[in-house]
């Protein structure tokens, strides 16, 4: 059940619906209904168990039409970018793990093939990925190369007409349940992407256990031990880091909206709790200190939403620059995490359990703060845009 409050919902204060195209709003409402009916009643159990029925979930999300929804052709819906963002927001209002599954499938694995793949690769994978019949993952990060993917050690070398891949990828969403992995590797031609069916000999994807965050999401290592691939497995055109970074732009855009879904859910649950909870003989919601917290959190949520919608409009116009995605990702994830933590204080001890969504969201947002570029990476992207000086590398 979504939390019911007696006052005005935080985003209604900003009248954000007046800024949303009716078609995009209709998609948002469909996704909201699906997650409310199908996922919300089960999410706490999945989170507690650290297990999700990924295959069943992918099929259902495929049927809903959200997998690769912002791409054209090959069974994808071709919606606006804003509609995709709003869908991410509804998914993440239930759990960041759910939005992660959809982000990695649509914005990373499918987008890489859609943007950089051969016609044969597109025909082979995209329609099945759009329906959720095939699950994809995206292997960029390595144990010793996270923020600096240029330092990756995974290598692909030619052997006759084939390629042989060796290396290890780390922290890969959907890895153990994937049918196909888009793997980035060093080659003599620069960094290249490879479309790797996960049943190829030498490929394995052990799950990473004991996570305290993103528990309703599969996270894995990818081990590539002499994986032999035909020439047709390489993404044919793209060379260099701009290939994987172009995919990250898509997923980061979804997070600009998604993180606000988690924050909205925390705030709504907290306002409802504060109205019910009696302290010192009156409702917690009637104390000035509580109202100051709720007002400040609503301000940050609403400002983040205006930024997200502006970002969506720029993307729909084809005018969104990568550093503008950094603005949104940095601000909205940071503020969403601050909101989740502040909400937890209002709930007191009750806030530490799975009976309320706030600490689950806060724990998830710790990962969201780190993946798709840490806050520090996005600060440095913005610093570079502001000054023209790159501060990523010591001495550079
Ligand atoms: P730099 O010299 O800046 O750029 C190298 C080449 O790439 C181009 N480029 C971009 N292209 C497209 N989009 C962008 N955002 C781009 N940023 C840079 C650039 O023009 C250049 O092209 P060319 O043609 O001249 O070669 O590269 P750098 O080595 O200095 O690194 C820059 C930095 C640090 C910003 C980049 O490495 C970075 O973003 N690091 C963070 C890595 C990251 O975000 N990893 C995420 C892995 S995937 C993931 O986390 C999935 S989580 C699951 C989920 O989404 O739910
Ligand atoms: P590091 O790069 O080691 O950073 C450690 C700290 O150093 C951070 O605070 C960072 O901001 C800081 N730092 C780094 N560079 C600088 C600098 N120049 N100046 C100052 N500070 C700096 N990756 C994938 O490829 N595919 C996936 O599907 C995927 N899914 C993920 C799912 C989860 C749940 C998580 C947690 C991660 C996932 N990742 C994935 C990996 C993620 O993208 C990386 O964790 C992230 O890029 C950061 O890399 P790192 O963890 O190695 O941290």
Secondary structure layout:
Layout: H1 10-13, H2 22-49, H3 54-64, E1 72-73, E2 76-77, H4 81-94, H5 96-116, H6 119-131, E3 136-139, E4 155-159, E5 162-173, E6 180-187, E7 190-197, E8 203-204, E9 219-230, H7 242-276, E10 278-279, E11 282-283, H8 288-316, H9 322-347, H10 358-370, H11 375-387
Parallel strand pairs: 3-6
Antiparallel strand pairs: 1-2, 4-5, 5-9, 6-7, 8-9, 10-11
The chain binds 3-thiaglutaryl-CoA and flavin-adenine dinucleotide.
Can you walk me through this structure?
The chain is an alpha+beta fold and 396 residues long. It has 3 domains: 10-131, Butyryl-Coa Dehydrogenase, subunit A, domain 1 (Orthogonal Bundle); 136-233, Butyryl-CoA Dehydrogenase, subunit A, domain 2, CATH 2.40.110; 242-387, Butyryl-CoA Dehydrogenase, subunit A, domain 3 (Up-down Bundle), CATH 1.20.140.10. It has helices spanning 10-13, 22-49, 54-64, 81-94, 96-116, 119-131, 242-276, 288-316, 322-347, 358-370, 375-387; strands spanning 72-73, 76-77, 136-139, 155-159, 162-173, 180-187, 190-197, 203-204, 219-230, 278-279, 282-283. The strands form 4 sheets. The chain has a 4-stranded antiparallel β-sheet with strand order 4-5-9-8, with helices on one face. The N and C termini lie far apart (52 Å). The structure holds 3-thiaglutaryl-CoA and flavin-adenine dinucleotide (FAD). The site of flavin-adenine dinucleotide has 20 residues, from strand 3, strand 5, helix 10 and helix 11.
